Amino acid sequence: MESVKLLFEAMNTNVLSELIKGIISLFIIVDPLGNIPIFVSLTEKMGSKERKQAFQTATLVGLILLLFFALIGQQLLILFGITIHSFMIAGGFLLLVIALELLISGGWMEIKTHPESIGAVPLACPLLVGPGAITTTILILQSSNIIVTIASVLIVFALVWTILSFIDPIYNFLGKTGSLVISRVMALFIAAIAVEYVIRGIMHLIPFS
Q: Which residue ranges form the domains of the chain, and what is each CATH number?
């Protein structure tokens, strides 16, 4: 009986560890804090009500997209005959390109769109849910399980919703300089995660003795 209890405790500890790891990695890639200056600039001509609606749309669309990939991500890999290690390498390079773009240019190119659709494009995709977030979600699914993956997505987007709900006071508190610094720091973390993905993928595909 004692051994069963210890087994359950070990399993719970492992699940909690995987969940924390998944939340942190996905939150860094989604990067709602680093995207604050971009969100503000894209919605600066909107009224308060329109901006709130755009952010709610962005959160909902982003959540649906990542849940979609969490639920069928593994089946998509099987359908296209892609191994997780190949996907790791490709996703790592994509993440690295995104990180370099953020570090060099400071963000994405400004995209002109109508206020009605700005919540879906570009706020939800590609700013919140781009290749990096999709890659990370599938990798969490592969390394953990569906419960941990869905929980990670739900918790991260609960944080995204909270941040977007208070984006004006957050931006005013950080200031333009502070927001840009956070964006650059997040880009460095994204670059580090990208390099880790590439190294792990290569090590599995080309075992070193």
A: 2-205 (1.20.1250)
Question: Counting beta carbons within 10 angstroms of the beta carbon of residue 121, is it exposed (0 to 12), middle (13 to 18) or buried (19 or more)?
Answer: middle
CA distance 30 to 175: 21
Length of the chain: 209
Q: What residue ranges in 111-189 does DSSP mark as E strands?
A: none
Residue 5, pLDDT above cutoff 50:
no
Give pTM, 2 decimals: 0.73
Q: Can you state the percent helix, strand and coil of the chain, rounding each to 5? A: 85, 0, 15
CA 198, CA 209: separation in Å to the nearest integer?
Answer: 18
**What whole-number distance in Å separates Cα of residue 53 and Cα of residue 15?**
35
Q: How far is CA 52 from the centre of its chain?
A: 21
pLDDT category at 172 given cuts 50, 70, 90 is: confident
Contact of 88 with 200, CB cutoff 8 Å? yes
**Residue type (1 letter), 32:** P
Phi, psi of 129 (to 5 degrees): -115, 95
Q: CA Rg, the chain, in Å? A: 18
Q: Which of 32, 47, 39 is nearest to 119 (CA)?
A: 39
